[in-house]
Design a protein that fits this description.
alpha/beta, Nucleotidyltransferase, domain 5, Transposase_IS30-like, single chain, globular, five-stranded mixed beta sheet, 3 helices
Length: 157
């Protein structure tokens, strides 16, 4: 009988959710980047702490009009987040739900559900973008932050 391989003591367990490196922002059509057509969305997860427990919201922002939809999630798992997005977007006409762009969080790993249920294309930020590391706000490369204030940087602009 073979011995089991040991894993390093503090090594992270592998996650079974996978986001391909191929669906990046660079592969989106130019009309999405230029914000010339309606129906292209940006999605993000916002997490809050409260005295009675953790809460999180999914925000969906249409790129041209900045129309915003917020969805409350029960937890952060990918299937639940995508189900909430589908429920909010399915009431809109098909012409207003063409594509969605996400960051590379594991909460968006069930993105194929959007293609199956709503026929929406999904795109993701670059895997090595320095302003996306560990969910913290980072400044854009080469830009300076004011000494007294904070500037919000979004990888989806």
């Amino acid at each position: 009988m073979a011995r089991r391989r040991r894993r390093a003591r503090y090594q992270r367990k592998p996650r079974c959710l996978f986001i391909p490196a191929g669906n990046t922002i660079e592969q989106r059509p130019a009309e999405i980047a230029d914000r010339t057509s309606f129906g292209h969305w940006e999605g993000d997860l916002m997490m809050f702490r409260k005295d009675l427990g953790r809460h999180n919201l999914t925000s969906l922002i249409e790129r041209q009009s900045r129309y915003t939809i917020l969805t409350r999630n029960r937890d952060r798992n990918s299937t639940g987040v995508m189900t909430g997005i589908i429920e909010k977007l399915k009431v809109l006409p098909e012409a207003t739900r063409l594509s969605v762009t996400f960051d590379r969080g594991t909460e968006f790993a069930s993105y194929p559900l959007l293609k199956r249920k709503l026929v929406m294309d999904s795109y993701f930020c670059k895997p090595q973008a320095p302003w996306q590391k560990h969910g913290r706000e980072h400044q854009w490369p080469g830009s300076a932050l004011p000494a007294t204030g904070r500037r919000h940087s979004s990888a989806l602009r």
